[in-house]
Amino acid sequence: MLLSFVSNVLSAWFAFLLPSYATWKAVSHRPVSEQEFERWAMYWSVVGAFVALEYAAGWLISWIPFWWETRTLFLLFLALPQTQGSTWIYVNVLTPYLTPREAGIDAGIVAAQTNILTFIQGRVAKLSQSLWAVATQSSAAGASGAGPAAAGAAPDPFSVAKGLWSTYGPALMTVFQPPAESAHAASARPASYSASSYDVSSESDSAASSSYSSVQPVYPEVQAN
After folding, report:
1. Model confidence pLDDT, tens digit, residues 121-136
2. Would residue 156 be called left, alpha or beta, if left means φ above 0 and alpha means ψ between -120 and 50 degrees?
3. How far apart are CA 88 and CA 90, in angstroms?
């Protein structure tokens, strides 16, 4: 664990950070030094190929004894200006291997990109057709009433939307409706209503009786003989 940590730190500093800074200096300063620019272009070409191979076969080469130490020494060999191993590998290994195979590699890259794009487009088209079939099936009842003349016509988007709403709309609207009244509250409502009506009737009766009692009775006068 400690050796791998030290290896990663040394590789990050000498193989990536310092070369990145040197590449920035070679590109940003004017006039551009063609020699420095060419050197770092060779370096990143070799490092990119090495990192790609390491990612592809990392599950296998990581079990090699002293792999992290060997990897660190190799990256230092590529990056250090005293060795300039990247230039040597570019001239003696990478260029002789890629030059006679350049046309085939370019054709393979174009074919791979085309096949991947065709595969993705086919999957997307199949998925869209499946979704459209599900949407049109929901509006089959409305489309069947349009008559045989409209049987071969393309489905109307408005009809499809209407069919979807008629199918799934009520279920969606139940989300926005207030919760149903409980059975206890429903059973308690008539009792409260009768009690309130009784109070109203009792109040009206008491008012009537009070108004009747406020009127003084009139008695006929008795005439003396």
Report:
1. 988 988 888 888 877 7
2. beta
3. 5
